[in-house]
């Protein structure tokens, strides 16, 4: 046999992990039509982590990703090598790595929107002493893509960046729902809608009436519908085509945002609407559209 460079070279550790996982079958999962098994498994592993459960054991990851533990371990080693997952120095738990943060910051549909909104959210949070959020609508609900901490009197940790809320909970999700077309609203309202508190709207007719009111007055209010004692105000952000592309909202203790008459405090509502209008103006000046 002639000497020289071999026709095939051994794959790197990361590549080998993916190849091994791709060819292994355990009978519990099948790739989607035209999909690549290894990629789908890797994505399921990444999606196993949530804001409520940022650290997971190997067994928990394997169960969530519908793979056996040996496959999960090999894929985790690959993801660690790519900085997408990290492991505790002492212990057996795993979490998402900083590489995921870098990927999220590079999503083009949100980069300009977040950059424009960030200083306005910071000012809004500071002025209202509440949490300020920027959110967009996705298939699974309203996703927070930016937020600012305004040194509130009580820190209520809800709606982290990247986390979605159902469209029937909170001022911003209901505002984004209200500005969908009638057919798309009906499709989303046909799904089961759970309640977080006794004040959460779940009936499609009630949400349709709420949406009509939101469109008429140009803002949304939510009281006690995610956490009792916490309220929120929201206003729409419009792109260069005049379409509602996102929502600006604040969330805080009810007395910070709602008066004794049950209506939003004028100062807080004005600040939310002003921030949303200024973000909209800047996006329109940039000819930005989703």
TrEMBL record:
Entry-linked Pfam families: HTH_IclR (PF09339), IclR_C (PF01614)
Domain HTH iclR-type: 36-98
Protein name: IclR family transcriptional regulator
Superkingdom as given in the UniProt entry: Bacteria
Composition bias type Basic and acidic residues, residue spans: 20-35
IclR-ED domain location: 99-285
Region called Disordered, residue ranges: 1-35
Lineage, broadest ranks: Bacteria, Pseudomonadati, Pseudomonadota, Alphaproteobacteria, Geminicoccales
Swiss-Prot/TrEMBL keywords: DNA-binding, Transcription, Transcription regulation
GO molecular function, one term: DNA binding
A Gene Ontology biological process term: negative regulation of DNA-templated transcription
Organism, as annotated: Tistrella mobilis
Gene3D superfamilies on file: 3.30.450.40, Winged helix-like DNA-binding domain superfamily/Winged helix DNA-binding domain
């Amino acid at each position: 046999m002639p000497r020289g460079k071999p026709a095939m070279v051994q794959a790197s550790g990361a590549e080998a992990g993916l190849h091994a996982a791709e060819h292994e079958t355990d009978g519990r999962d099948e790739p989607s039509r035209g999909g690549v098994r290894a990629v789908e498994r890797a994505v399921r592993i990444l999606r196993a982590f949530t804001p409520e459960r940022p650290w997971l054991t190997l067994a928990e990851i394997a169960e969530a990703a519908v793979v056996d533990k040996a496959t999960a371990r090999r894929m985790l080693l690959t993801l660690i090598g790519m900085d997408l997952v990290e492991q505790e120095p002492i212990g057996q738990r795993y979490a998402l790595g900083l590489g995921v943060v870098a990927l999220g910051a590079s999503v083009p549909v949100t980069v300009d929107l977040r950059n424009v909104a960030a200083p306005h959210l910071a000012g809004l949070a500071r002025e209202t002493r509440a949490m300020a959020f920027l959110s967009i609508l996705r298939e699974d609900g309203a996703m927070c893509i930016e937020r600012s901490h305004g040194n509130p009197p009580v820190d209520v940790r809800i709606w982290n960046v990247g986390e979605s809320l159902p469209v029937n909970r909170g001022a911003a999700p209901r505002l984004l729902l209200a500005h969908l077309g009638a057919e798309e609203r009906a499709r989303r309202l046909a799904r089961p809608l759970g309640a977080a508190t006794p004040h959460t709207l779940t009936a499609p007719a009630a949400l349709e009436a709420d949406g009509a009111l939101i469109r008429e007055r140009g803002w949304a209010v939510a009281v006690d519908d995610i956490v009792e004692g916490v309220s929120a105000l929201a206003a729409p952000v419009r792109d260069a085509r005049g379409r509602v592309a996102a929502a600006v909202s604040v969330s805080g203790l009810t007395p910070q945002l709602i008066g004794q008459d049950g209506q939003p405090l004028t100062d807080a509502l004005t600040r939310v609407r002003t921030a949303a209008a200024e973000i909209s103006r800047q996006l329109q000046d940039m000819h930005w559209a989703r």
